[in-house]
Amino acid sequence: MCQNQAQRDEEFSDVELVQAVIGPCPKCGAEAPAYSPEEAEALLNFHRDPTHPGKAILAYIRELDYLCDNCSAALEESAESRRSHERYQRLVSTLLTKELITKFTLGPSFEASDPDIEARNLNEWDWARDWTAGRENVWFYGPPGLGKTYMARCLLKRSAENGRSIAEVPAAKWLQKSPKWEENTPFLAALKTVGVLLIEDVDKAIWTVEGINALWELLDARYTANRRTFLTSNVDPEYFLGPGGSWRRGDNPSRANAIAERLLPLHRVQMRGTSLRRETKSSADQAETGNQASDAPGIGP
To answer: Max Cα separation, the chain?
Structure first.
């Protein structure tokens, strides 16, 4: 039987053998591609079983399902997307356990952002959507209620989806922990090395000399490790870094220069306009005032 099969195989070229058994793609029905002699020979050699030389090559190949190139690529893309999502979920779980992020950190997304807020700073939102995790640190600043933290969190989420570790900490909370910097607690140690760190509301913290020195130590460690840092504030960075800035106070006024150097290269994102929250509250207050006036009892003659 094996000899007869071998004889039949010899009656056909490699191309004819392959084309005889590989039919349409079982997923989309696309016709099988035409194989060159070299491709057919390579396919047959790949599927030959050296431990069973008498096994019919045609029957062996017939047992296999061959997807077309498009379906194969789509299947691989789907599998990779699933693996990427699983990695992302494991990363998020670890970061939450270590208290490096909160449940609010990864809530924002570009898809769910408020068009009214974006309309106030279209160029900045276009920049954010095109952002990739390069070498730049970023300082988001401007009046409250314009989406600074939301935008920063969108970029944090994108970083995490790409497999980078992230952390978010309000500046005031970090300053409370910074006296323990010498102890190198797990939380403080992690802030030195996470891929992207967001320090929120820099202007709401009370910066003592010790706090400024601790900030320099943090940024110096991150600069050495080539990590990215985001900061948010309601005021211009020059309020801290410029001549007479608050980080120039104390016994080491040059520390502000050292901090600025550790933030290089620095991209500044200035958000302009009035707070949407403030406008919404003002409209609500006006409406409430109007309702109270209409409900007031009339004055008789």
So the answer is: 121
| The domain defined by 85-277 carries CATH number 3.20.20.10 | no
Q: What is the pLDDT of residues 76-88, one digit of tens each?
A: 777 778 888 889 8
Domain boundaries, the chain: 2-69, 85-277
Choice among 98-102, 233-237, 278-282 with the minimum mean pLDDT: 278-282
Closest listed residue to residue 205, CA positions, set 235, 230, 184, 227: 235
Dist CA 167 CA 153 (whole Å): 10
Three-state secondary structure string covering the chain: CHHHHHHHHHCCCHHHHHHHHCCCCCCCCCCCCCCCHHHHHHHHHHHCCCCCCCCCHHHHHHCCCCCCHHHHHHHHHHHHHHHHHHHHHHHHHHHHHCCCCCCCCCCCCHHHCCHHHHHHCHHHHHHHHHCCCCCCEEEEECCCCCCHHHHHHHHHHHHHHCCCCEEEEEHHHHHHHHHHHHHCCHHHHHHHHCCEEEEECHHHCCCCHHHHHHHHHHHHHHHHCCCEEEEEECCCCHHHHCCCCHHHCCCCCCHHHHHHHHCCCEEEEECCCCCHHHHHHHHHHHHHHHHHHHHCCCCCC
Q: Are 58 and 9 in contact (CB under 8 A)?
A: yes
